[in-house]
Specification:
heterodimer; A: alpha/beta; Rossmann fold; 2 domains; four-stranded antiparallel β-sheet; 37% helix; B: mainly alpha; 4 strands
Chain lengths: 236, 293
């Protein structure tokens, strides 16, 4: 295989004295959906925030498109094509839908209208509500907005943190359909989920995290079939 | 007619409070800190303008421009040296630092410019418009102050509402982490906010000293506190709130001076503030932010 888009090598992350990430390594290759699954507190979001540059590993390295991100501030990481849809969506609640999308395109100097059009085609619901204040959207719509907002930066790697969190099952399916669609159109995706069943069913490969470590890895099917994963995450 | 006269003076004083309050409210909105040194930036603006005009013979408006430039730089330096290192610190530490910075600026001014009051030359003379056969007299400074406040209000609202940078400021004020994930340079945006606030403080300084010509190192302190009150009154973090709060505070203060007692005017102002906060804890236009669980 060629050079990975994202390469995480043996990173250790601390919150004060708490050792949150204990030497994990993984890669994401172009065109893949890779999922990190694991229970609450396994260190999944911490991993994403470290990749985004919001947290810093005490040892180990993160490289994106062959370059180290060690000294790169978070806003420059976005500029390089690495976007994150944060846990809990975190849309700008007092700004309109359209303004939220414009913020997503903050690093882009041109092509705003075409990008908006693309996102509105992908999420027609957002177009209907473009002048509405984001805080008044439903949870599912906010998740769509958060994803659309991240896509506005034309990412080469899209990282999604718990997109199913707090959504009704039918909406979860809808969101996962969209993720699968994005993947079919060539997007490279790193998906963090507690909903292991859903995540593994669309993932090319998966890593299972437990208390800051990666304990198992394999293709989506392998992990779905694995006895250990089944016991731990899929309810027997 | 006397009533109208008082009302116009109130609006004029309130305009100055409003311009200062903007600095407090914008910085609070974005950096979530109370910059108690803000009032002293007004004083620095006043001195710079004073020296530019009386010592170097600059055109007064040019003097204000120089003061704006230097105060903007001062604001950025203060933020960089004193507040930026405390970005992750508890808010009490930042608050105390801001109070310390306030004393630092006052004492530096004392050292540089001595405690002797300077008589500030008004930036547009001491003339007045006479209306209704002289029954109503409105000084040029008053008109200029109110007009400046209106212009700032319109320009700033457009800037925050429509421009890319203005929207980035709003995004930072809502959620700094999410703003970073959009590729917004949060530190640069905070610096920008301090720069704008301090530039406005310089304008406020020139207008304040034109209306009340005594300039001393402590000149900025009381108007600073009043403007902070105005910002809280209107709802801290809200730009329209700062305008409304500033104007109302000015009018209440002048009316209290005129109709109640000039000694008690400040007490009346703060009494009104307390009543407003009892009824609307977030201020007139403030939003109650709910802690999400």
């Amino acid at each position: 295989m060629s050079e990975p888009v994202l390469k995480v090598e043996n990173i250790n992350v601390y919150y004060g004295s708490i050792h949150a990430i204990k030497g994990i390594s993984f890669e994401v290759y172009e065109g893949e959906i890779v999922t990190l699954i694991g229970a609450n507190g396994a260190g999944k979001s911490t991993t994403l925030n470290t990749i985004s540059g919001l947290l810093h590993p005490s040892t180990g390295s993160v490289s994106f498109l062959g370059e180290s991100l060690a000294k790169v501030p978070p806003h420059k990481i976005v500029e390089r094509g690495l976007a994150q849809v944060p846990e809990g969506r975190r849309v700008f609640a007092q700004m309109t839908v359209q303004e939220n999308l414009e913020m997503g395109a903050y690093t882009q100097n041109s092509g705003l209208n075409e990008d908006l059009e693309k996102v509105y085609t992908l999420f027609p619901r957002l177009k209907e509500r473009m002048h509405q204040i984001a805080g008044t959207l439903s949870g599912g719509e906010q998740q769509m907005l958060a994803m659309g907002r991240a896509l506005m930066s034309r990412p080469k790697l899209l990282m999604l943190d718990e997109p199913s969190m707090g959504l009704a099952p039918i909406l979860v399916e809808q969101i996962f359909d969209i993720i699968a669609d994005l993947h079919r159109t060539g997007a490279t995706i790193l998906l963090v989920e507690q909903n292991a069943q859903m995540a593994l069913s669309i993932a090319s490969r998966g890593y299972v995290m437990e208390t800051g470590k990666i304990v198992t890895t394999g293709t989506g099917e392998e992990l779905l079939a694995s006895e250990a994963v089944r016991k731990a995450y899929l309810g027997g | 007619m006397i009533f109208l006269n008082y009302f116009i003076s109130g609006i004029s004083l309130g305009s100055i409070y409003a311009i200062i309050a903007l600095g407090y409210t914008m910085v609070y909105g974005i950096a979530k800190m109370l910059n108690f040194a803000h009032g002293d930036v007004i004083m620095v603006g006043g001195y710079v303008c004073f020296y530019a005009v009386s010592r170097y013979g600059l055109n007064p408006f040019l003097g204000v421009a120089v003061a704006m430039l230097l105060c903007t730089i001062l604001g950025i330096i203060v933020e960089r040296l004193a507040y930026k290192p405390l970005r992750q610190a508890p808010s009490l530490a930042v608050l105390i630092t801001a109070i310390g910075m306030s004393y630092f600026l006052q004492n530096t001014a004392l050292l540089l410019w001595s405690s002797n009051p300077k008589v500030f030359p008004s930036i547009i003379g001491r003339g007045a418009f006479k209306l209704f056969d002289g029954a109503l007299s409105v000084s040029h400074v008053t008109v200029l102050t109110i007009a400046t406040c209106l212009v700032i209000m319109v320009v700033l609202s457009l800037f925050i509402g429509k421009t890319r940078l203005g929207k980035a400021m709003r995004a930072c004020s809502e959620d700094k982490g999410a703003a970073q994930l959009m590729g917004i340079n949060v530190n640069a945006t905070i610096s920008m906010t301090f720069a704008i606030g301090s530039g406005l403080a310089a304008i406020a300084g020139a207008l304040l000293c034109s209306a009340y010509p005594t300039l001393m190192p402590t000149t900025g302190a009381l108007p600073g506190i009043k403007a902070f009150t105005a910002a809280v009154f209107g709802g801290i973090g809200s730009v329209p709130g700062a305008f409304l709060g500033g104007l109302m505070l000015g009018v209440i203060e002048i009316f209290a001076k005129a109709y109640i007692s000039s000694q008690l005017s400040d007490a009346v102002v703060f009494a009104v503030l307390i009543v407003v906060l009892l009824v609307k804890p977030a201020g007139l236009l403030g939003r109650m932010t709910q802690e999400k669980v």
